[in-house]
Specification:
Layout (H helix, E strand, L loop, with lengths): L28 H11 L2 E7 L4 H9 L4 H7 L3 E7 L6 H6 L7 E5 L5 E6 L4 H11 L6 H10 L4 H14 L5 H22 L7 H10 L8 H8 L1 H4 L5 H22 L4 H6 L6 H4 L9 H15 L4 H15 L5 H14 L6 H14 L6 H17 L3 H15 L5 H17 L1
Parallel strand pairs: 1-2
Antiparallel strand pairs: 1-3, 3-4
């Protein structure tokens, strides 16, 4: 329903099973190519540099995944080539490496098959490998095929499902061009396929990808809601519920921010036709309707700059959730305030933030989140003229930051702490 507070946004690396991760050949490019010929495989080359953060991200978060290792290890000899090493200057020039990371699929004869420039999600990464080996068509090839067979609904469906993986690989004008093309695909698909024929797993995924905002008269939302039981027979119940709740809650919040009291009519649906959708979700001692209403009212009052009623609604919500309250409940309220007031909080808002952050810090959390909350708390103390408390929080934040696992994140956060300390 709500976005994560920007102060708490951070990447979570997913480490794969070490035994199934991509096996990297230890040796030179020439030796790797020789091994590929002997094993009748093709070559995957990761051109990198020690200082390249995105290169490290691919290595730790993509190459390490079991699904990546399972696909690559039986089809490729995989090798990393440091572009700054003298012995690799010639091969880097041969394969025209100009940006990092650059990853090149090369035949056992040394011919380039496909290349990737920049970071890529695991699913898209494996897709590129399949294209390189000729196992699948590229997105561009699929689109060209579709242009000749526009009544082919399976092809139309495939394009829509693969587009989110393809778009991030494009830059500048090419990305704009393909975005425009892809945006026209969904309305045409909806018109041709008809909603009544879309009660299946793939088409539900398409709806979640391309229909992400609800409106007052919303054909898609109302159809999925009316056919909730049918959709949950082909898609996991929590996925269907999550989709409908996300659309409905976001629309309610949108109306609240605009000051449109029509949000109350939308709330009524939570206890009517949407009751099965919200069933099973717990909010402590609050009913689902009471919980959603308190959050909606709080947003409405906040964007009318009625701080007192905003605080009152949020405190009722927090009290109602009781022991089920989470760190994200507090940080979401903080994000809402920062957004509504463009980061310029009143003294009353800073004082309330101190209370909420202090309660959040009583919860279990990782070192990164803990550190960021302490920095926020220090800023609130600073803005309420309590420099000594602010300094204590920052010193505590620096100690806590030692537990952050990602070295780059740790260095960045510690730099912020030092800057804040110097500003006191």
């Amino acid at each position: 329903m709500r976005k994560i507070f920007y102060m708490l946004a951070f990447l979570i690396g997913t480490l794969g099973n070490l035994s199934a991760q991509m096996v990297l050949f230890q040796g030179s490019f020439d030796d790797a190519l020789k091994k590929a010929k002997e094993e009748k495989k093709d070559l995957f080359v990761d051109f990198y540099a020690d200082w390249c953060g995105p290169c490290k991200m691919m290595a730790s978060q993509v190459f390490s995944l079991p699904e990546v290792g399972e696909y690559f290890n039986v089809r490729f000899v995989c090798v990393q080539v440091n572009v700054e090493a003298k012995e690799n200057v010639a091969v880097s020039k041969k394969y025209n490496v100009k940006v990092l990371p650059t990853m090149v699929f090369i035949s056992r004869e040394g011919k380039e098959l496909q290349r990737i420039e920049g970071v890529m999600q695991p699913e898209a990464f494996i897709k590129e490998a399949k294209v390189a080996l000729g196992e699948e068509l590229s997105f561009v090839q699929l689109y060209e095929k579709f242009k000749k067979k526009k009544k082919d609904m399976e092809l139309h469906q495939q394009l829509l499902l693969e587009a989110p993986l393809f778009l991030p690989t494009q830059q500048g004008y090419e990305q704009q061009k393909w975005t425009t093309r892809i945006e026209s695909l969904f309305p045409d698909y909806l018109k041709s396929k008809k909603l009544e024929n879309m009660i299946n797993e793939k088409d539900f995924q398409i709806l979640t990808l391309y229909h992400q905002q609800a409106s007052k008269e919303d054909e898609v939302f109302d159809f999925v809601a009316a056919n909730y039981d049918k959709f949950t027979q082909v898609v996991k119940k929590e996925e269907v519920s999550g989709y409908l709740m996300s659309l409905n809650n976001s629309y309610i919040i949108q109306l609240c921010k605009k000051g449109d009291l029509g949000y109350k009519d939308r709330l009524d649906r939570v206890n009517k036709d949407l009751k099965p959708v919200y069933a099973g979700f717990a909010f402590g001692n609050l009913s689902v309707l009471d919980a959603v209403t308190l959050l909606a009212d709080a947003t409405y009052y906040l964007y009318r700059h009625d701080e007192a009623k905003f605080f009152e609604s949020m405190d009722k919500y927090f009290a109602g959730k009781g022991n089920e309250i989470e760190v994200s409940d507090y940080t979401q309220a903080l994000e809402d305030m920062y957004t509504a007031y463009n980061g310029q909080l009143s003294k009353a808002a800073n004082l309330k933030s101190i209370v909420w952050i202090s309660k959040a810090l009583e919860k279990e959390m990782d070192a990164s989140t803990h550190t960021r909350l302490l920095i926020m708390l220090a800023q609130c103390f600073r803005d309420t003229d309590n420099g000594e408390k602010a300094k204590q929080c920052l010193n505590q934040a620096f100690v806590t930051s030692a537990g952050i696992e990602d070295p780059m994140e740790k260095e960045h956060i510690q730099g912020i702490i030092k800057q804040n300390l110097q500003g006191l």
